[in-house]
Amino acid sequence: MQHKFKLATLSSLLCANAFATPVYQPPGPNLTYGSSSNNQSIMSSVANPAAPAAVLGMEDSQYRFGILHIGGGYEIGNVNDLFNQVDKAATDIKTPISTVELQALALANPLPADFAIAIASFINTSPQTATLNNVLSSVQQDGNATLFFGGHVPLTPFVISRKGWGGSFVLDANASVIANGSFLADPLFISNATATAFANAYIANPLAPNLPIPPNDSTMLVKAAAVGEIGLGYSRSVLRREAPEPVEGEPTPGKLSASQLKAGELTAGGRVKFYQVGLANKAVSLTSMQDGSQDTLNNDLTYTKSTGFGLDVGALWTSKHYRAGAWVNNLNSPSFKYPTINTTGYTNSTIIAQLSADETYEMKPQLQLEGAIFSESQNFVVNLGLDANAVKDPVGRDFQWMTLSGAYATSSWWIPGARVGYRTNLAGSKLSYLTAGLTMFKALSLDIAYGLDKLTYEGNSIPRSAMINLGLQMTF
Predict the structure, then answer these.
(1) Which distant-in-sequence residues (6+ apart) come within 8 Å of 154 by Cβ?
(2) What is the model's pTM?
(3) How many CA atoms lie within 13 A of 322 on its CB side?
(4) Is residue 189 a contact partner of residue 234, using CB atoms and an 8 Å limit?
(5) 3-state per-residue secondary structure call for the chain
(6) Distance (Å, whole) CA 27 – CA 229
């Protein structure tokens, strides 16, 4: 089934209706915490599926739900003034020689055959063409721009933890959109046939020649995804070790003994997810681009919709002073099909092969590891998270997060909680971020990730990437 959407409109609708777990962007305080489990944020319940039951070690029952969780961000490849460079390249491909330059060549080469040869030689060896081909090579390697938005349906995640039920149930519903523009380069080279067409057009009207557009398959490729997800998870305790009574000669309270290290609880959990995924792609050659490249990223796209199921499993060991856990997302590797790109009119076999590749988005399994160390009061915590392997997002970018954070988790309604951290993508773009967040009134959270790499955009220095999340939750 196919549906037409305008990306900007879809993004606005998602944000307006408070949907948010972007495909690429960790939701809520997880942006700073990483995927490490913690009792302060309801968003830890959508990471490790074993995490929700850990709260039952402290309370007989608990109910938590999200009121509003939204977020968004962007990422730009390592090319200064990317869109301006692409737009100029499109102009240079269409007009590789000026009327004045043609006039000079015509005067030096009065015979039509010599004139055509001179045109081909001039264009193919000119500094302008060399610069153009360098730009095309650069934007193919690093020229991409990605936007992502999303959020959770109001009242989700909804977490019910009751000892009478033996564990915790989690219901989650979220949606996200992501769009990425990238570029495929076809170096400009003028054949004898094209040069002859240039010569004939000039000879027919030297004052205002109707020059042909040279054949060239340099292309902007836009890929987008709209992903809806409904998940139902359950977790429970599977092993518990009680702390032994203090023994004479062992360390006093406040100092961790060997026996106390054994005290803790192992929880395990699973989650089933239903996906509805809309995928779209569009190839626009630079020679046929009517709008600028930035507008092309926001143009109408046709989405092919399909559904699938995912399965997550995880385990978490929780002690008073530390946590350690692991889980795997999408054990069953659900996959979804992109529409086929129409390559009619393309002649470069390499470009055709690139446009025909990656027609399937597969959610491959990813192993995620977490660890945390707590202070005696459990108000201070240091978290470490690591994706053990890289996976692709819906638009084909690799990501593998490593996160490190420190936080003060408040137990007061009036003293805000605070956290700072660092996250880096060990695959793909390899971009790094400084992160920071605040939680106010134990309910309202704001988290920001600021990219450490910079570039120039329209004369201003900006971070290559940034993300922001806003969340509101209730616990009772």
Answers:
(1) 18, 66, 67, 68
(2) 0.85
(3) 11
(4) no
(5) CEEEEEHHHHHHHHHHCCCCCCCCCCCCCHHHHCCCCCCCCHHHHHCCCCCHHHHHHCCCEEEEEEEEEEEEEEEECCCCCHHHHHHHHHHHHHCCCCHHHHHHHHHHCCCHHHHHHHHHHHHHHCHHHHHHHHHHHHHHHHCEEEEEEEEECCCCCEEEEEHHHCEEEEEEEEEEEEEEEEEECCCCCCCHHHHHHHHHHHHHCCCCCCCCCCCCCCEEEEEEEEEEEEEEEEEEEEEEECCCCCCCCCCCCCCCCHHHHCCEEEEEEEEEEEEEEEEEEEEEECCCCCCCHHHHHCCEEEEEEEEEEEEEEEEEEECCCEEEEEEEECCCCCEEECCCCCCCCCCCHHHHHHHHCCCEEECCCEEEEEEEEECCCCCEEEEEEEECCCEECCCCCEECEEEEEEEECCCCCCCCEEEEEEEEECCCCCCEEEEEEEEECCCEEEEEEEECCEEEECCEEEECEEEEEEEEEEEC
(6) 14
Q: How many residues does the chain have?
A: 476
Separation of alpha carbons 238 and 265, rounded Å:
8
d(CA 197, CA 274): 57
CATH code of domain 2-80+144-186+222-247+257-475: 2.40.160
- C-alpha span between 296 and 194 (Å, rounded): 28
Q: From first to last of its 476 residues, what are the pLDDT tens digits of the chain? A: 444 434 333 333 333 333 334 457 888 899 999 888 877 788 888 999 999 988 776 666 788 888 988 999 999 999 888 888 999 999 999 999 999 999 999 999 999 999 999 999 999 999 999 999 999 999 999 889 999 998 999 999 999 988 878 899 999 999 999 999 999 999 999 999 999 999 999 999 998 999 999 999 999 999 999 999 999 999 999 998 876 655 555 444 444 444 444 578 999 999 999 999 999 999 999 998 877 677 776 667 888 999 999 999 999 999 988 999 999 999 999 999 999 998 989 999 999 999 988 789 999 999 999 999 988 877 899 999 999 999 999 999 999 999 999 999 877 788 898 999 999 999 999 999 999 999 998 889 999 999 999 998 878 899 999 999 999 988 76
Token pair, residue 51, equals 């995490």
For the chain, the structural domain boundaries read 2-80+144-186+222-247+257-475
